[in-house]
Specification:
By secondary structure, the protein is of the alpha+beta class. It has one domain: Aminopeptidase (3-Layer(aba) Sandwich). It contains four helices and eight strands. The strands form two sheets. It has a five-stranded antiparallel beta sheet, covered by helices on one side. Strands 6-8-7 form a three-stranded antiparallel beta sheet, with helices on both faces. The longest helix has 15 residues. The protein is globular.
């Protein structure tokens, strides 16, 4: 059993912030055959009224696929709630959990044309490293994503 399932490392059901809170919805185990690492999945809610504004995940592990294509952090904000930096605020709430898992840096990847996501990476203080081509055999390419901008966020 991986350290991810150690109760001392779990975030609890809710991680509260000023503008947003995270509700843990599930934990995915690793799947070495698919090169997947364990992952926490959260719903992002607006703190003032508990409206769900999006989702965020934290992948615990360090593989080439994570560093180059998938990233440690994945987020999506419902279209009607975009433009409030909810994804960046949610990512900041994940920082203590990442540190408890001994991650000193997180990789965030985004599609080159996704300017709002790129701005969130910069708002977090992540450094743009490069844009890479996703191999056609990678699961991300099968979803239609063929290039990724890579950002390194030092915690």
């Amino acid at each position: 059993m991986t350290a991810l399932f150690d109760a001392a490392l779990r975030p609890g059901e809710v991680v509260n912030g000023v503008d947003v809170s995270l509700l843990l919805t599930s934990i995915s185990p690793e799947d070495p055959e698919r090169d997947w690492v364990p992952c926490y999945h959260f719903v992002i809610t607006r703190s003032r009224d508990l409206v769900e504004v999006g989702r965020i995940s934290l992948r615990i592990g360090d593989t080439e696929s994570i560093r180059l294509f998938a990233g440690h952090v994945g987020y999506s904000i419902n279209e009607v709630h975009r433009g409030h930096r909810y994804s960046g605020q949610a990512a900041r709430l994940l920082r203590p959990l990442a540190l408890r898992h001994h991650l000193s840096e997180l990789w965030i990847t985004t599609n080159p044309e996704n300017e709002p996501s790129r701005r969130i990476c910069e708002w977090l203080g992540a450094t743009y490293i490069e844009t890479v081509d996703v191999p056609p055999t990678h699961e991300i390419a099968k979803l239609g994503e063929h290039r990724k901008c890579r950002y390194r966020w030092v915690l």
